[in-house]
Design brief:
Elements: E1 5-14, H1 21-38, H2 50-56, H3 63-68, H4 72-76, E2 81-86, E3 93-107, E4 110-122, E5 125-131, E6 134-138, E7 154-157, E8 162-168, H5 173-180
Antiparallel strand pairs: 1-4, 1-5, 1-8, 2-3, 3-4, 5-6, 6-7
Length: about 190
């Protein structure tokens, strides 16, 4: 029997009210970097809102990418685990394979209005089913059954900032190997 694989996308919104140390660091450093990088597109200081800056000079769209470099070390310190996204017991952290930084809104004269997002894409996980608003999942690293036939699983509650962004109807080992970067053991003689 084959079981489907899914990938999740989680969007973490960060603003002045964010409480995690990681979020506060991203907030501070992304704002400072935005102020520095925006000077190139706003030589006469005509525009104070990020959206106005982009409307005036479409090349300012590159600020998402350029400002994203300022937070790279903080994301690296996450060790590929999505902050704040855990199972119902708070014991299984969801791994990510990719992320994207974006500026949602900002005011070049008022840091309180700065708002950014980091969108994480998870590794492929085995979808075992659902219960209520929770997905029953198994991580690829735990995709083998125990001696007594049990497959390790966990419940992940769905929420507004979380979506299923990829679904694969079968679970070929090459997809799991690609996400984990390792070869899976194939038994047999």
């Amino acid at each position: 029997m084959s079981t489907p694989l899914i990938k999740l996308t989680y969007r973490q919104l960060i603003d002045r009210n964010s409480t995690l140390t990681f979020e506060q660091q991203v907030f501070e450093d992304s704002y400072c970097e935005l102020l520095m990088q925006a000077q190139r597109y706003n030589k006469n200081n005509e525009w104070k809102l990020f959206h106005d800056l982009v409307a005036h000079d479409p090349k300012a769209q590159s600020l998402h990418y350029k400002v994203g470099f300022a937070i790279g070390l903080y994301v690296q310190e996450l060790h590929h685990l999505i902050p704040g996204l855990t199972d119902t017991m708070g014991t299984v952290n969801i791994p990510f394979t990719d992320y994207q930084f974006s500026i949602i809104n900002s005011d070049l004269t008022d840091k309180k209005k700065h708002r950014v997002a980091i969108t994480y894409t998870s590794a492929a996980m085995t979808l075992l089913g659902s219960v209520g608003n929770c997905l029953i999942l198994s991580l690829p690293s735990a995709a083998t059954t125990t001696e007594d036939g049990w497959l390790p699983g966990f419940l992940l509650p769905m929420r507004e900032e979380l979506t299923i962004s990829g679904y694969y109807a079968h679970s070929p080992m090459h997809l799991i190997e690609k996400d984990l970067g390792v070869k899976a053991f194939a038994g047999g003689a």
